[in-house]
Write the structure tokens for this entry.
Amino acid sequence: MNCCRLEACFQRKLTVWYREIVTGICSERLNDREMKKEIEFAYWQLDLEPGAELSEVKESYRDLVRVWHPDRFTNNPRLRQRAEEKMKRINTAYHLLLELLARDQEDADAAESSEKGKNVYRDGLKRIRYPSGKVKSEFHVKNGQVDGVARSWHENGQLASEVHYEKGKRCGPARFYYENGQLHSQF
């Protein structure tokens, strides 16, 4: 199988799997071995060894964006197109690993909190902010679980996602937006 076909296959499987991670829906399409291969391929896309830390993933992503951002190739349409395709793969791999590593960290934090007898979240409105102070995400917690609409924003202030939860489980629509505000996907 040539490299382009392998990457196209990876992109299709990874997109399905990433959506399942975000929505919390379990799939029988990918078994554990296939998932492991997809995760390893995501690390490969970011020029990392499997098992790299979150900080390494972020650093590698920033470096690759500096190299492959399509705006660097405005004078050459052919190279710009290649850069756009490469950035799609990089972004998909980055977001998959970011979600996985964040979920692993949350699981570790929850396990540590439950060992100490604490709730992971206290009830009320929770806000997470960018270093600039702008709101990155906000969600409501009721009885220690996310309940209601969880929203996140891009650093430019545009809505990034909107996901509905009830008693800690995703329900209803989930919408994801580009930084320019256009709808990216909905499921």
Remarks:
- Residues 1-119 form a domain with the Helix Hairpins fold (CATH 1.10.287).
- The first strand starts at residue 124 and ends at 129.
- The helical segments are 3-23, 32-45, 54-68, 77-115.
- The two ends are 32 Å apart (CA to CA).
